[in-house]
Amino acid sequence: MSESSRSTPNPGNGSVTRRTIVKGAAWSVPVIAAAATVPLASASTNPCTVSGLTLSGLSACGTATLDLTLKNAQGSPVPTGTVSVTLPAGLVWADNNASGARTITIVNGHPSPAVSVKSTGQAGSLTITAQGLTPCSTSATQAVVSIAPAAGAGRIFYQVQGGGYPVVNADPTGIVPNPAAVYLNAGADFLFTVTGTGALWYAWPLNVNGTSPAPTWHQVTTPVPMASLTPDSVSGSFMWGLGTNGQLYKWTSTSPNVATLMPSGGATLARIFTANNWVYGVGTDGRLYGAATSGSGPLVPITTGSPAAPVTNVTIIPGVDGRINTTATFIAGGKVYQVSGAANATAVPAPGLTNAKSLIHDSSNAVQVLDSNGALWWGTGAGLQQNANPALPPLDSFLAKVGTGYLGIAKDGRLIFWTVSPTGVQIVQDWSSTQFTAADIAEAVAAQRDSSGPIALRLENGDVWTRRLSGDSWVKVPLPGVTDADGSSAGLSLGAFAFLTDGSTTCP
What is the pTM for the complete model shown? Predict the structure, then answer.
């Protein structure tokens, strides 16, 4: 995952960006809310209460022991009695997999024999109800049960695309606590996650068909919690993290268990990206900074013009694939610029283009820019020209590069695929689906080493659909509740995807 930003079309730049990491998700730790102890509404002169209604430690597909206390009017546990407990949908009695109400025997205030309850698979919150029956009647008492995602449900998955490879459970024993975002490293088979508390973990190695042992997970020592990661250099040797303090941290495959500070020259960074052997950051001041990936910093301000002045008002940086050539392309003040290393940035010639809002710069050094009117501009760092092919409709946003072409959302809501040759826009195809609409798309990620694609679209409802180039169709990934995704040119010689789910699962 290259950025950690909201995964909806950004009206400011026309791009579909990444989901914000939601730290400390509410379902991350099993919690039982305090049961509301309701005083007896009884015809009896011997009122009772039901309290302490719990299912401690219950997780999706798991089993927990029901506990409660039946007390008399004096506050003492009732020696013998019965209580009726009602389970909602999503919970069943462990001994017979039935739901609904059951009468439970009480001895010395507690259920005896012990009674177990099982979750049918969905993480979240459910309400259980208990009511005393004998030797006295009570009003209904309710407790909210928080069901944690299943330990071992494998909320982190990956899939190597090409030849119908399966979705692989990357963490079948639930080693990583509360993962919040996933990232893939190019060229070196590393899978990363940042947790809800900002902890950084990596897994290695990935395998194609899932028959080999699961990758081994390791926690990375970081000076501060991580807010996000960004794509690495094309060598696969580096990964970059943006700390919660706005500073840049460097991970290397040669020292993978620690991330070190790359001084930012006094800048506080808001976003980071890479261009092969250079790493760049956009400061909270809107200025651009850069440093060689092989060095130890600090980042230096990128300048432009003569006399040289700092680049300011940077609004758009590559959001499709940061692993590009040594030239970095970005938008500042509605114009397109390129910079190689820390040299003076130069404006890309584009007569008439003053309102650039998003761009794609891929590994072939081709540049595509979308202006605020929906017109496509294409070319290289040597110059851009406006599309003249009427078959390409006005575009609302880019989604991703797909193999040898590109995918975007037209202003009329269609998904449009196109290719570009040295003479301009060529193939234009409608990739719209009857299964979902462009408005449903939360995120688009590509796995670009495979020249035939593919691309994965994560929808707001948690479904993921993948597709390759022409002649293919959209295929649904068999995972429920996907909350984050990443694509990369993995070192398995085929493109790969990583997926993070919310813990929803079908119990065995």
Answer: 0.71
